[in-house]
What we know:
This is Vacuolar fusion protein MON1 homolog. This protein is an alpha/beta fold. It is about 40% helix and about 20% strand.
Amino acid sequence: MVRGAFHHALIIPATFLYNQPKKLGNDAKRLRREALYDSEDLARHLANYVMNQIPTLSVSHISSKDVITPDIWSDPSRIYACLFAKASRILFLVTRQDIDAFSDFITQRFQPLLERAEAMDYSWKSRFLVVAMGEFQLVDSLPCEVIRFREIGWFRDSMALFILGKKIQG
């Protein structure tokens, strides 16, 4: 790509991908989740931080579950119209608390969509990335690349931020 060109990415928190109610525990657990592990807040902070670090990137995030309707994953044309019209790369942000919802989304919605899309000769796998925050086991044989931030204090993981920037740029 040309020097000085902008690259666009869209971060989707895993909590928005599959209709699964949030499990709320006691107040201490809830406060800890909100402070460190809430993928909705992490998406906003990550988008801002990456854009500040790499000025040629434009990174936005989905801020409401209402923006993504559940039936968007049933049709490749809807993906193009709703997501790829906004960004060239789609990032799924996954935390430890989102593993079950993300696993359900991958196996029941995303993999069937990719299988159908491959038949229509779309090269989608390279346009989706998984951003995992912390050390935990993800679904086996994910259909897209994973960028793992080793700790929840992701802003200190300069190598993962560098790799994320390079992957967004293509």
